[in-house]
Write a structure and sequence with these properties.
Blueprint: H1 2-20, E1 22-26, E2 44-49, E3 53-55, E4 59-61, H2 87-95, E5 99-103, E6 125-129, H3 137-148, E7 152-156, H4 171-180, E8 191-193, E9 198-202, E10 204-205, E11 224-229, E12 232-234, E13 243-247, E14 259-266, E15 269-274, H5 302-314, E16 322-323, E17 331-336, E18 339-344, E19 349-355, E20 361-365, E21 374-375, E22 381-389, E23 394-401
Length: 402
Amino acid sequence: MKKEIMLIILVFWAMFTQAQIKILFDATKAETASNADWIIDADEFNLDYDPDPVLGGNEANPQRFPTPDQSTVDSETSEDYWTGANSSWGIESVKAGFQVETLPYDAKITYGDATNPQDLSNYKVYIVTEPNIMFTDSEKTAILEFVKNGGGLFITADHNVSDRNGDGVDSVDVWNDLFKNNDLDYNPFGFLFDYENFTEDTTNTAPDSDDPVLDGPYGKPDDLEFYGGTSMTLYPDVNKNVVGIFYRMGADPYNKWAAMVARSTYGLGRVVAMGDSSPADDGTGDTGDHLYDGWDEDADGDHRILIMNATIWLAGGDTTGVALYNESVKFRVYVRDNRFYMTATDIKVNSIGIYNTLGQKVLKFNSANLTAGMPLTLPKGVYIAVATADNGQRYQTKFLVR
């Protein structure tokens, strides 16, 4: 009985913490300058860049909270519910159970500032897509402290010489300056952006088939398309945890150059970096900009899979389960094409119970042989799988039905 009570408490706690996870999309670094519109929603279009953002123009000026309110988003909501070229990313994140916000152009980037309602300490994931204004020294420190203390950072650059606001620097300059010139660590994540400009369709992925971004809750992305992007050089001698995910065609994935997407860890936090803003562009937003649908149309929809796997990993989620009682065993579950799959090492699973957000058991599988997949018909949302092994131990993990 005590074990059952503990299980229910843990299920409720897991769902409570999931409900509190917030994602912050940055808009302080000229993300809407020129033909860029890397935001999730804007109600006003009155910004200009000279080169810093000022009122009086016609560029998107995103507000903190998207409208209509995200509480009204359901499984059938389309991305044009909000107005921004990254609205698909925002809508999909809400469907996955997260809360999303924008850091407006005149807000502050801080960490540990209790007077700032949008201090990074209030968020789990910080997304910065193609910044075109340099981070200040205090902002660099805030971002690195955020990651070091457990935050997730999604970094997106663009090709060399892509200065959109006319201040003489582009996103490659901005990111490399943060990596090289900060008060904490030189090259803290173990990669630097190359000064390149290329368009390429690649299927050259990392050799690790269990990578949480390449094989995550949304599936397996096989293809990646850049339209004017850059690559990264990896430095595992500086940060041993840096890993390439996608590489340019012809590049040896065992080498440490020409990575188009990479991930790393720093302190307690996680980082994902991508060398082009095109994959997250959903083709809608500011009608005065030339936008293209890279989210769904390019790479046969693999960009959505890649970016959402990365977002969930940055938020601390993956498909690796944890033991309830002082034991660590790799236990993985996922759903694809309405079928439930499970893999486990070092244990034999006798049964799996599926719990909803109320802690109610909605399904039970008695067979331990789930590698071929069992039919699963559940409403979209986040669930908890609890496996009972032949030794009596229980193991739990979250998974997503989409």
